[in-house]
Amino acid sequence: MKVINLGEQNSVLNQFVSEIRDVNIQKDSLRFRRNLERIGEIFAYEISKTLNYVPSEVETPLGIANIQLCNQTIVLGTILRAGLPLHQGLLNYFDCAQNSFIAAYRKYGKDNKFTIQIEYASSPKLEGKILILADTMLATGASIVLAYEKLCQEGEPIHTHLVCPITSAYSIDYLSKHLPHKRVTLWVSAIDEELTNKSYIVPGLGDAGDLAYGEKL
Predict the structure, then answer these.
(1) The whole model's pTM is what?
(2) Which of 22, 81, 109, 113 is surrounded by the fewest CB atoms within 10 Å?
(3) Is 132 helix (H, G, I), strand (E, B) or coil?
(4) Where does the pLDDT of residue 112 fall: very low under 50, low under 70, confident under 90, or very high at 90 and above?
C-alpha cells in the first residue's frame, strides 16, 4: 500500500485542515462542511493526475480541439455520515462518477471495546473500475477495511484510492497488514500519533459527523 500525505506540502490544503481542527471555527457547521468539501476537491484533483488518459477531440464553434481525457470509470464510495461532505467535494470534480454508500458504526461492549458493524451498502459493480473510498477520519482502520471488503464482494476494482484526511499512525499499520495489495493508495493530509483507549485520534478534530450534522442520539 502506498501512502501519500498531501499535508507535507505547503498548500492551501493546510489552511482548510487547520480550520476543521480549530475548536472555535468548528462551531460553524456550514463552514466545517464546506472545508471538508474543499479538501475533497483538492484530493480529487491530485488523484486525477494518476488516472489513464487518451487523446480526444472536442468540437468547438470554430473547429476541433485536441485534448487528453480520462477513459476510466470511477466509483466514489463513502462511509456514512461523516464522509458525506468529503464525498461531495470528490463528486464536484468527478461529476460523472458512479457512487457507493456504506453505513458503519462502532458497537461498544465492556471496557471501551467495540466491533465495527456494517448494516447497509449500496454500490455498482467495481470490476475494472477505479474505486475512491472516503472517510474523514481513520482511527483504527477497521471500518474502512470492512467497507472495502463489503464493496469488493462482487468484483475488485483495478485500483483503490482511500481518501482519509485525518489519519492515525496506528490505522496506517493496520491497513498495511490487512490491505497489502499494491493496488491501494492511501491519501491523507495529517497523520496523528496518539490514539486514546477509546480509539479517538489525538489531536484529531472531535466527532466529524456531529460537527457536520449535529449530535446523534
Answers:
(1) 0.93
(2) 109
(3) strand
(4) low
